[in-house]
Each structure stands twice: as structure tokens, then as C-alpha cells.
Amino acid sequence: MKSKESLFNYINPNIEYSIVCDDALNALKSLEENHFDLIITSPPYNIGKSYENKTTISEYLNFQENIISELVRVLSNEGSICWQVGNYVNKGEIFPLDIFYYDIFKKFGLKLRNRIIWHFGHGLHASNRFSGRYETILWFTKSDNYIFNLDDVRIPSKYPGKKHFKGPNKGKLSGNPKGKNPSDIWNIVLKDWETGLWNIPNVKSNHPEKTEHPCQFPVELVERCLLALTNKNSWVLDPFVGVGSTAIAALKNERNVVGIDKEKSYCDVSKKRIKQLINGELKLRPIDKPIYVPSNSDKNGKYPKEWQGLVNRNGM
Ligand SMILES: C[S@@+](CC[C@H](N)C(=O)[O-])C[C@H]1O[C@@H](n2cnc3c(N)ncnc32)[C@H](O)[C@@H]1O
User: Fold this and answer.
1) Residue of 256, 219, 209 lying closest to 234 (CA atoms)
2) 64 lines ligand 1 (CB under 6 A)
3) Which residues share a beta bridge with 139?
4) Hey, which of 67, 154, 273, 282 would disulfide with 179, CB 3.0 to 4.6 Å?
């Protein structure tokens, strides 16, 4: 763990934050226009979680459109919106929410830069369709002149020593010493705590970031967007901040942040996590930590002897 002294440098004391416990639409009305370089959120999906009343998809989208109108107003001209969603499910039929949201954002003149696939290797097992293993992030910008710091989020190349084999650069290294573009498919561990992945013996029994919230997203997912799409001292907003993952990612990287959530208990957890971060006590999964792969000695990674004879056509 870092010493108190280095933490003081690590979290810039001039950076501001606020957790507003209110209905998002109401709270947004009091925010300054053209202020935020990044608005990043995972809105409610209308699937009947404890913090939402499930309605028809059209009622749900009407409500969200009012919110988005306010978000566009407070977004800076160089700013971005990252809208992280999965599926709304009704009687076994799935409605990928990004398809519906796309038209709303276009109505406000925003431009789509990437539809990022957030892929995770584990999750609930479906029996009447293929198991869902990704959600998406729609990244929109307000203008063509937007902040994009690719170098801050490059990842290690697989073959850094690769050289051009023909042409004028023949024999010269072909990659970028800072690493490669992370692409639009991100393998960031989802809620490990819900999947059993972390219950494997000798691996942690709980994800370090787990709180009481049922749909928390990982801090490292926010960090990648935030490092690429904002500068130090930028302002970041999450209108559905839950237990404060966006706020933590922002403060950790010297960005000012406003988070809104209507549930007091989640706002309390956000404030507590922020205090823990400032005191150097918050446990976080480090950004870009490799995803756990079972080793040969891990008994949970082997085909169990009780299943011998129940072979499928892949020979497992
Ligand atoms: C998918 S969760 C976001 C979780 C968050 N990304 C995190 O990591 O903790 C959606 C959040 O929206 C909040 N919410 C739902 N309707 C709201 C509204 N009208 N105004 C403000 N917050 C709302 C819920 O309380 C919930 O915490």
C-alpha cells in the first residue's frame, strides 16, 4: 500500500467531487451547461431491480430521453457520453437497449465514435437461448473536435518485436513502443462476485470492489474511458452513480466529478468509498490486471471424473 505521503500527491487535494442524492432529472437541471468533458453511466435497464419500477419499454425510453436532453446541455463541446447498457428482457424476449438508445442520441445531434463490446467470460447460464456474455458501451461525441488520448490507454502489443517484412520500412519495427490500440472489444472482468470465478479455492472469495449494490460496474471499465476521453482537471458526470464507481475512477485520476443517485443508501456507500480512497484504504482491482485463467493444477479447471462418459461432440 502507498504511504500517506505519496497518497497525498496521488489524489490531488484541489480536485472537487460531489455526490448528489436526488432524482437525476431534478438534479441535472441545476448543473451548468457545457461543463462536463465526460458523462459516463450505466442507467437502470428497466428489468425490475430493487431501485426501479419496471414499466413498458416506451415509457422507460421517454423518461431517459428527458434525462439525455439535459445531459447534452451540460456536455462540453469537446465532450463525450459513454452509455453502458445490456438487455431489457420481457417474457424471455431480449431488447438490446443500445439499439433503442442510438436513435435518441442521434436526435440530439451526437455522433457515434465506437460501439464498444464489453465481453466477460462468465455470467448467468441461459437454458432457452445462448448465454449472454457481453454488454455494450455507446461512445458519442458532441462535435468532431473531441478529446481523445489514445496513448494513455494503449495496451501491451502481443508481438512488440514484429518488423515490416517489405516496402520502404522493411526491417524496421512495425508497432508502437507505447503499445497497441485496445480496440472496441474489451475483456474487463464483470461482476466476478456474481459468477463464482472468485470462489475458486486459492483465488479471492470476493472481488475487491464488491459492495451491496446489485449492478455495480468495475472501476477499471470507467478508467479506460476516462483516461482516453478527458484531461487532468476535466469534469466528469455520472447521473446514475450507484455506489460511486465513476467517482472513484475520476478522483483516482485527478478529474473533478459529480455523481447523482436517488437511493440514499447507495449515496452513503459512495461517500464512504471515496473517504476510503482518500485514506488509501479502498481495495480496487488494478486496471489491466490479466484475467484469471485456471492453471493445470487448479482442480476446478479440469473435467470432473463424475462426468466421464458424458462426452459431447467436442470431445470434452
Ligand atoms: C445500473 S445502476 C448504476 C450502478 C453504478 N454504475 C455503480 O457502479 O455503482 C443504476 C443506478 O441508477 C439509480 N437510479 C435509478 N433511477 C434513478 C433516477 N431517476 N434518478 C437517479 N438515480 C436513479 C439506481 O439507484 C441505481 O443505483
Assistant:
1) 256
2) no
3) 82, 114
4) 154
Looking at residue 120, its amino acid is F
Strand ranges inside 194-277, DSSP E: 235-238, 256-261
CB contact at 8 A, 89 and 95: yes
Q: Is 184 in the pocket of ligand 1 (CB under 6 A)?
A: no
- Could you tell me the three cell numbers for 39? 458523462
DSSP state letter for 47: S
- CA–centroid distance, 246 to ligand 1, in Å, is 12
* β-bridge mates for residue 57, sequence order: none
Helix, strand, or coil (residue 286): coil
Q: Is 243 in the pocket of ligand 1 (CB under 6 A)?
A: yes
* Average pLDDT value for the chain: 84
Q: Are 82 and 146 in contact (CB under 8 A)?
A: no
pLDDT in tens, 178-224: 999 999 998 876 544 343 333 222 223 345 666 667 677 888 889 99
Helix, strand, coil percentages in the chain from 3-state DSSP, rounded to 5: 30, 20, 50
Residue 243 in contact with residue 10, Cβ under 8 Å? no
The set of cell numbers assigned to 146 is: 473531441
- Domain boundaries, given as residue ranges, for the chain: 4-307
**Minimum mean pLDDT range among 85-94, 248-257, 285-294:** 285-294
The single-letter code of the amino acid at 267 is C
Query: Which architecture characterizes domain 4-307 according to CATH?
Result: 3-Layer(aba) Sandwich (3.40)
- pLDDT tens, 238-250? 999 999 999 999 9
Taking the CB of residue 237, how many other CB atoms lie within 10 A of it? 26
Q: What confidence score (pLDDT) does residue 4 get?
A: 40
pLDDT digits (tens, 9 = 90+) for 15-59: 999 999 999 999 999 999 999 999 999 999 887 777 778 888 899
